[in-house]
Design brief:
Elements (H helix, E strand, L loop, with lengths): L2 H11 L4 E5 L5 H7 L5 E4 L3 H15 L3 E5 L3 H4 L2 H10 L3 E7 L15 H5 L5 E4 L6 H13 L5 E7 H4 L20 H13 L3 E5 L6 H14 L3 E3 L14 E4 L7 H8 L2 E5 L17 E6 L13 E4 L2 H11 L9 H14 L12 H11 L5 E4 L4 H8 L8 E2 L10 H11 L5 E6 H6 L3 H7 L4 E7 L4 H9 L14 H7 L3 E4 L3 H12 L4 E7 L5 H7 L9
Parallel strand pairs: 1-2, 1-3, 3-4, 4-6, 5-6, 7-8, 7-10, 8-9, 10-11, 11-12, 13-14, 13-15, 15-16, 16-18, 17-18
């Protein structure tokens, strides 16, 4: 069998349905083999778009999303998506081309050491130097991409290797079962929880798995323990639950953090050190139980007293069996915090000023979207407002990146969601800065016949950095720009562009776009004037109110 044919056969064997990418001449044998495959090739307008789509596919399915690029500049354009997937624990496989490695025909033209470049930001990176190892290397790459902690892998496929003849056999995927925590450790964890006065449950990104969601809900329902989440743990338990305190969207200084400070024990399920720490440990302070697939990485602000290492779902289920509600537990302060959080977060939901407050947008979207519909966020100050204020009813219905926190991912992520779940309404909320970094993927979305709504929060500036600049007492400098006419821009791609001119006008436009096929873009002027007085000033005085 021709090596490139075997490569495609091995990908089919892994269940690959899509390859996202921008091919180059070094990928042409691969492309020819792909043309006879059941795998759908989705051409994007930039390798970043392809990588972000592949990573989001992996995030939602648990199976590696696959993306393709050529050598040199094509491969370097995948660096940001590689880091995005690696830090965000999203299984993704990158395939890049390369010049012939056995007989050079163009000296060093476009050649860089892509394998070495990818090494620090992937779980696995290899150049295929022999066609007879293609099948084993693909199987190994998929195994590593999927197993905990999931992440990015990379294979470089030189064009002369792609043209070789080789053995046609592939390796069948083998399932993997994570080991379970031992009984003595679970018994110790149960005793620590039972003897605490104010235990508190933290749900992190690593717990965002379907069966883990059910297990955690059963733990909370049985014990009555209050819980909060990190940004990437949102929706693991329905946030309408009476014991939900909120999302730690800031590193400190929020009403929620008053509860964290008072807790004497935190049960930290699925903690990932990549996310900003939602609390800071101090020697002699609260105790922490770390429940995860792997032990905690110790640093000055996180040094748990107990590691419960093993399959998270199994650990949570067995803790639920062990633990009984205790009369000594006192959750009265948590109830007080919950009321403060609720009143604070909903304060501006009905404020119809225009340009629109991000809190108002959060409320409008929550009212107009069903429990299974999905919002994807780019990276900007609005991410904090959505993380704090948006109530998730199901897991993975608010997709945000609190790991690499890269701009430019919001639109490609929404495209991947709609590709996977065409019956769900999908909304991408992006800043004008982040949108313009990969706005060319509007053409890809239209070409694919996708149905989604893109809301651009237009402040003609890098708003998050402006917020930080003001908090540090610096003058307003260097962060403003001018935007194109987004309505005409959308229309030029064959999408449908709208400009909101009032609160009611926006709501009318949104209703139309959510209930009409096609790609829609709404240019929405945003009012960020409350960022500093609320997030920087008011929250620092919160403890006086409690």
């Amino acid at each position: 069998m021709k090596a490139s044919d075997l490569f495609i056969k091995a990908l089919e064997n892994e269940g690959v349905k899509y390859i996202f990418g921008v091919p180059g001449e070094e990928n042409l044998d691969f492309l020819e083999s792909l043309s006879n495959s059941s795998i759908q090739l989705i051409i994007t307008r930039h390798e970043q778009g392809a990588g972000f789509m592949a990573a989001t596919y992996g995030r939602l399915t648990g199976k590696p999303g696959v993306c393709l690029a050529t050598l040199g500049p094509g491969a370097t354009n995948l660096v940001t998506p590689a880091a995005y997937a690696q830090l965000g624990a999203m299984p993704m496989m990158m395939i890049t081309g390369q010049k012939p490695i056995k007989k050079s025909k163009q000296a060093r033209f476009q050649i860089i050491d892509v394998v070495d470049m990818m090494r620090p930001i992937t779980k696995y990176t290899k150049q295929i130097v022999d066609s007879n190892v293609i099948a084993s290397q693909i199987r190994e790459a998929f195994r590593l991409a999927t197993e905990e902690r999931p992440g990015a892998v990379h294979l470089e496929f030189p064009e002369d290797i792609a043209q070789e003849d080789c053995d046609p056999d592939v390796f069948e995927p083998i399932g993997h079962i994570n080991p379970k925590a031992d009984d003595d450790t679970l018994s110790e964890a149960s005793e620590m929880i039972s003897s605490a006065k104010m235990p508190l449950l933290l749900i992190g990104a690593g717990a965002n798995r379907k069966i883990t969601c059910q297990a955690l809900a059963e733990l909370v329902d049985k014990t009555g323990i209050y819980f909060f989440t990190t940004q990437m743990g949102k929706g693991v338990i329905d946030e309408r639950h009476p014991n939900y305190l909120g999302t730690a969207a800031l590193s400190s200084n929020d009403f929620l953090h008053a509860a964290i400070e008072e807790a004497d024990l935190i049960i930290n399920v699925g903690h990932d050190v990549i996310e900003k720490p939602p609390f800071f440990m101090k020697k002699g302070g609260k105790k922490v139980i770390h429940v995860n697939f792997y032990p905690a990485e110790v640093d000055p602000v996180y040094f748990p007293q107990l590691n419960v290492v093993g399959d998270i779902t199994s650990s949570v289920n067995r803790l639920t069996d062990y633990i009984q509600p205790q009369e000594s537990w006192d959750f009265s302060f948590y109830k007080k915090v919950k009321e403060k959080v609720r009143g604070h977060l909903t304060k501006y939901f009905e404020d119809e000023r225009f340009p629109m407050l991000p809190q108002r947008l959060v409320n409008i979207l929550r009212e107009n979207l069903a429990s299974e519909d999905v919002i994807t966020l780019d990276n900007g100050i609005y991410k904090i407002w959505f993380a704090r204020n948006y109530t998730c009813y199901q897991p993975n219905t608010l997709l945000l990146d609190n790991a690499l926190a890269s701009m430019g991912a919001g639109l490609p992520s929404a495209m991947a969601v709609n590709l996977l779940y065409p019956d769900k309404k999908v909304v991408a909320v992006v800043g004008d800065g982040g949108f313009m970094m990969n706005s060319q993927e509007m053409e890809t979305a239209v070409r694919l016949g996708l149905n989604l709504t893109v809301i651009i929060l237009n402040d003609q500036a890098y708003g998050m950095i402006k917020w930080k600049q003001e908090d540090m007492g610096f003058k307003d400098f260097g962060l403003d720009y001018k935007n194109p006419d987004f309505v005409q821009y959308a229309n030029s791609y064959g999408a449908h562009g709208y400009r909101a001119e009032s609160d009611q006008n926006f709501r009318d436009i949104l209703d139309k776009t959510l209930n009409s096929p096609g790609v829609h873009l709404i240019d929405l002027p945003v009012d960020y004037s409350l960022n500093h007085p609320i997030l920087n000033e008011m929250l620092k005085k919160k403890t006086a109110e409690l």
